[in-house]
Amino acid sequence: MSDQPATIEDYLDENRKFPPPADVAARSLWIQDGIDALAEGSSEEFWAAQARALVTWRKPFTEVLDWQVPNAKWFADGTLNVAENCLDRHVTAGMGDKVAYHWEGEPGDTRTITYAELRDEVAKFANVLKGLGVGRGDRVAVYLPMIPELPVTMLACARIGAVHSVVFGGFSANALADRIDDSDCKVLVTADGGWRRGKAALLKPAADEAVERTSTIEHVVVVRRTGASGDDTEISMTAGRDHWYHDLMADASTDCACEEMGAEDLLYLLYTSGTTAKPKGVMHTTGGYLTQVAFTHRYVFDIHPDDIYWCAADVGWVTGHSYIVYAPLANGCTSVMYEGTPDHPGKDRFWDIIERYGVNVLYTAPTAIRTFMKWGIEEPAKHDLSSLRVLGSVGEPINPEAWMWYHTNIGGERCPIVDTWWQTETGGIMVSPIPGVTTTKPGSATFPLPGISVEIVDEAGNKVERGGGYLTITEPWPSMLRGVWGDPERFFDTYWSRYPGRYFVGDGAKIDDDGYYWVIGRVDDVMNVSGHRISTTEVESALVSDPRVAEAAVVGATDATTGQAIVAFVTPKGDTEWTESLGEELRRHVADEIGKISRPKTIIFTDDLPKTRSGKIMRRLLRDVAEGRDLGDTTTLADPGVVEEIRRRAEDGGPTTAE
Ligand code: 7RM
User: Fold this and answer.
1) CA 479 to centroid of ligand 1, rounded, Å
2) What pTM, to 2 d.p., does this model score?
3) Domain-wise residue ranges, the chain
4) 535-545 pLDDT, tens digit each
5) With contact defined as beta carbons under 8 Å apart, do 327 and 319 qualify?
6) Which fold has domain 9-81+286-523?
7) Whose C-alpha in 54, 99, 292, 524 is 20 to 30 A from the C-alpha of 228?
8) Distance (Å, rounded) from C-alpha 517 to C-alpha 108?
9) Could you tell me if 83 and 122 are in contact, meaning their C-beta atoms sit under 8 angstroms apart?
10) pLDDT digit string (tens) for 252-294?
11) 530-658, superfamily in CATH?
């Protein structure tokens, strides 16, 4: 493997073991429901049983799986509606007064939304969308902060068979425009802004810019969020095109039938970064997706009827789609949803929320855990966290040190940690411990779930029984992606061509002597910054789109807090001066092109980039150089010494020969 992070060594020695606590085992749904016994049969039978147990079908399926590489159809002749599964069936069953979301805004305002209220709100907005001409199969772009209207919009689409494409609010106008264009969205749902760190982070100006650059948006629906909670920025509304959400909702009816959808009809698109500059529109469908997310949510988090569950991700990423919206609602669970940042107004905001709502299950990311470590144990110590029972981790490898900190200071040494491995493409959790069942090791996602077949293979595709290699998935699974929007060839090439018949994950992994899986990180040109996938190529192409840049190479360098940090080596054109302000302008330019999350932490100017004879940039070498320096938060000044260093290292043979 050419691109393995240096930290692999850190994992090889980790052999602490944490057996399942007896009290967690005693109430484990996995044990009560006899999942181990069910898992002994075939995968298809297993998933069919889950699909019947957890999902309500309009027309029951008779076919389980039709698999023609790379096209999977699960439960294809069954019909259902996802919104009906998430809302109406619970209301009908008498759970209308149960809380679906305890929502909390960053300024401290709160909303308690029951299943009955959420159903009505969704039905009304579904009627609004219909009134704007949205029908089955139409794409709706969604660019919203973490407010209840975000799940409402997604479920309203699901209710009428429309397809949502949620774009994370941190992305720029450009990124939004590209995504609108790629799937020809007809309507855009956005907000004036959302609250972040005490400030109104506006979305409408970027939404306007995106709509101007595209040609398919007929209507824009605008939720008033910041304007309704203290921000007096004037929001411009284009007559005929733009509508306030509250105006449209004022006289919308709660009477809206759920469309009967096929199990393989498209539910949503979610764009994710790959190894090229153009993000892929990952396609997820209804029946299999809902089955797997509901199953994994119920058993991986051991969700009991009275639990308060909090997934602290953003709905703009797949974790939020699956584990804030679809799975918890399908399971009739009560969730906490929080709008803002963890350090507002104080660095104990998360622990304060956990104490006030009595959160039992917390699902967050290693990057957040490492940030909390930096802030010190005094912050969680201010609060009573004894309601917590299960802790989850997702988004990147969790280093044993962060795992131990989470276990000790948040879990009070009594909560199992579920380190859940999965991807946007897998739709739901694939590899994870089960609380009360699995003996965990800090940093290992442990074992694949039932019905999931993974293997580690070497370069040639031979199975690796013990040791390191590439992670692959050998059998189709219900929530797998069904394609890349508009590009079946790319779907095949990216995931199915490298090892025929197997899904190529793009992660390096190892299996230890006890058969535990350890996912180490990406093996392709994808960076993972704070659990967000960012393509090196995408950032490079943003950099070279500045007329002063001749060439750019971007690497993810190990960072103690964010996992990786973006470091860009930039060769300016001709007589462009290498100034600090040029670096600043380029960082801003990338933020404008893609979004702030993709802005390089450091820019290093160089008059040359190290390349192989075939012209491939030697990222490994650049990463070594980047990791050898103290990475400032801004631009590293023009630095001829770097080039010297790169040359010298290239001459040494050293790490460059690996590529
Ligand atoms: C859910 C999500 C996917 C990539 C994946 C890995 C990395 C995610 C873990 C992990 C080690 C984990 N979707 N990753 N979870 N690595 N252990 N538990 O994150 O599409 O945004 O990213 O994230 O590299 O391929 S994602």
Assistant:
1) 16
2) 0.90
3) 9-81+286-523, 530-658
4) 898 899 899 89
5) no
6) Rossmann fold (3.40.50)
7) 99
8) 41
9) yes
10) 999 999 999 999 999 999 999 877 778 999 999 999 999 999 9
11) ANL, C-terminal domain (3.30.300.30)
